């Protein structure tokens, strides 16, 4: 390709570009962070490839980024001597969005600029952010290892297309030149650029160089001015933040570091920074974001922890460093022990990595425990944080009950639920236990699709009547996760929709006697009911758990709930056919009507189908159900 070629952006890029330039308007300066971060990544990549191919360094082994501007031409250039781009890479990487999930991301945009800007921030706009301040971008590059004649120039105005052509470029690496818009003249200033770099990019390990400014006296009575000299100076600290001592790092620096590695706009909820010594040596700097990313529910999504070995960047998203249930955590791990050429496969097996993973897990749980503690402290500035954490990440944390047996108890203490006594998900198991009724022997819970559905379950009636608190489990993961938690500090967890209710000591003798009597006299009807419903119900029995409702469905102890079976079927998974038990309230007028009724069969089926409806299910044959009810009404 020596001829100039004009190519179109992938449709999503064009759309993203439009959004970037319109939504990020209020936070323009981040473009510099993004471009410097790309330059730094390119240098990391070169360093990594050069571990096996030292010749890639050519004659320039010192990796660096140079930022310069030209006031007359109104251009700002960010140049690196990193890995560079081949022509094909320029076309592919700067013309399409390779990241998965782009479509989903696009579909989440609302048109509300503020909300969208936040989403875009999470997604990371990278290179395209240059178009916030530029109406044209020229990229010139040559990949390390290619001949000087194999360079590439890429030019675009950020609308529908871009041009590429072959150029000769002796020096390796990439320079990105922004042709600044009228309203972006601010960035033609050494002072301004330096201040943005120190805000966002101090921790970049590479030196970032700018031309030194000198004061030149005016001649012939003209005023003096600052002029750029030929000398370059380093304008960033150029030390990796995590290698510095904690006491020398301000909260603002931690926050900016977080933003630069996560592309997030918001500040993190918490962070932890430690140098771990012992048989495995490493530094960890881990953050809990203040909101969930849009793809949190994708369990295959890579974790947000970057792995460094002795300050050399090895890989992004090193999922081996944290269990999947902590996939919302972002940060950096720098190991002193791992080999530089460690691969993802090797990571899975390494004993050092296992130790790091355990250490990270402990630290993250400790961070969350601290937030929970702060919630109890009226004086704490962090009082609100735990509730926020729980709303964003609570459901993911629950996966840990099934995934991390070693920490199950720690996780159990962090759980929060809504309940019959609390509309918000704020009841801990410990708080529940503390207010259990005299004689109560279990922690009761009910699962449901939504909190409203759970709250209206007939199974709750007797608990309500007796003032016994029942926890609502309405997250999709609840039933699965809770199946790993059979007890909390010696008290069993018991679903109110599974097995028989045995309120034990909570029921008084009179109630027990009355129930037994009702059951006895109901026996003949029960036998007929069983017969009529033998295809639908595993069993029919009399219950004391109902107060106002005629009947309800329960499953056997240890069985899968109807709701989970439904969820699994909806998700296209195989679920066992759960045949529930119908429990009837022998003192309910409708149930008493059964005895001797000519419509016994219809009534029996209506009783069953209504119980199914009440807990969120669907009668097997809705039309038949309607027919039966209508016949009765008529
Ligand atoms: P991201 O960096 O998040 O992948 P970007 O849109 O910022 O997304 O960049 C897209 C791709 O373009 C990068 O993944 C990289 O392959 C390439 N790229 C961008 N800037 C540079 C650079 N300075 N040197 C080499 N490659 C670059």
From TrEMBL:
The keyword Nucleotide-binding applies. Its main location: cytoplasm. Residues 567-634 are annotated as: C. It is found in: Cytoplasm. Pfam families: HATPase_c_3, HSP90. GO terms for molecular function: ATP binding; ATP hydrolysis activity; ATP-dependent protein folding chaperone; unfolded protein binding. Residues 1-344 are annotated as: A. Keywords: ATP-binding, Chaperone, Cytoplasm, Nucleotide-binding, Stress response. ATP binds at residues 34, 38, 80, 93, 99-101, 122-127, 174, 344. The keyword Methyltransferase does not apply. One of its GO terms (cellular component) is cytoplasm. Residues 27-184 form the Histidine kinase/HSP90-like ATPase domain. It comes from the Bacteria. Coiled coil: none annotated. Homodimer. Molecular chaperone. Has ATPase activity. Belongs to the heat shock protein 90 family. This is Chaperone protein HtpG. It comes from Ramlibacter cellulosilyticus. The lineage of its organism: Bacteria, Pseudomonadati, Pseudomonadota, Betaproteobacteria, Burkholderiales. The gene is htpG.
